[in-house]
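ZP: hey, is the coproporphyrinogen III complex queued? I don't see it on the tracker
AM: it wasn't, my bad. submitting now with these inputs:
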Amino acid sequence: MGVACDTSAARLADSRFMKAVHRQPVDTTPLWIMRQAGRYLPEYMAVRSKVSFMELCKTPELACEVTVTARQVLGVDAAILFADLLPILEPMGIDLEYQKGEGPVIHNPIRGSHDVDRLQALTSTESVDYVFQAIRLIRAALPGDIPLIGFAGAPFTLASYAIEGGGSKNYVHTKSLMYNDEGAWNVLMSRLVDTVILYLQAQIQAGCQCVQVFDSWAGCLCPADYQRYVLPHVRRLIQAVEPLAPVINFLNGNPALLSLQRQAGGQVMGTDWRSSLDVAWQTFGHDVAIQGNMDPVSIYADLPVLKQRVGDVLRLAQGRAGHIFNLGHGVMPDMNPDHVKAVVDYVHELGRR
Ligand code: CP3
């Protein structure tokens, strides 16, 4: 058994994706696509038409099927666990619902310091065991050279959902709590971080080779606020997880935060399209890997234009070791799956060393 395990671990470590994570040379640029298992894909809709989104997340066999199928249909270099950012909040005390066409809704949002005590840190991840069951099934079903990426929300992004009760434009409630009661804010963020540490460690133990932390909404903060209210929490999270597996630290929406994002840690910096990749990489420093960063709206372009736009991103990476191609944000439900597949072929073709 020792030998078989060593061999399969070695094959995964030798994959294009893991080599790029560790900034080792690769034959061509590896990629995966955020939300690669989503509504744009007919194979996903075939499963999704029979169950609700939450049922899909909580049925390991189905979560496995959509994860593995999307990876295979696209031919990308890594799979990402099918799950969502928010279900981890449920056992912490949040009443979560996915409404048709509305996205996630929280019926009992945290609306002030007096509410913070309603959100309890998890001391065990048993209540989300369906996630680890899915991971074990996915790992067993994936080809031996395809790594599996786990993920969780970063504390600010999770806090903003728990506080606003859904998506938000100005984050008024979140920032009010942050500014008015820094003590309560830190308690809330610490509980989220404690929980996400356990959650990501358990994902890695169940079979993920790498994990991504999504700070999808932290871009709404100015640098001073990110530094004061968010960075120490993200840093603690990443420091606790990275001894077990590499972390992709993804932050969306604010190029002014790049150097602080780097300070928060992570072996890979995930970045959106608002900075050009060469400038972002220079700001992060070339001693870290980078993931990104084509504007997802490029997928709507005609194929020859799309190919040029893929080439533009690859040119800025200059074939340097440690580039993982991705979109700067998730693929959208009305995108043409053939165009998404074309991106995969273009990256592998144009990224060849
Ligand atoms: O990338 C993948 O394929 C893995 C699966 C994944 C989903 N959500 C599936 C999903 C991942 C990694 C996420 C992360 C996520 N979830 C984020 C951060 C990503 C980012 O965009 O920065 C956020 C903000 C959420 C919360 C969330 N979940 C929203 C806002 C919505 C509604 C919007 C929408 O697209 O419907 C969801 C639902 C959701 N999560 C869907 C999928 C495939 C669509 C649900 C459906 O089938 O109806």
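AM: back. The mean pLDDT is 97.
ZP: great, adding it to the tracker
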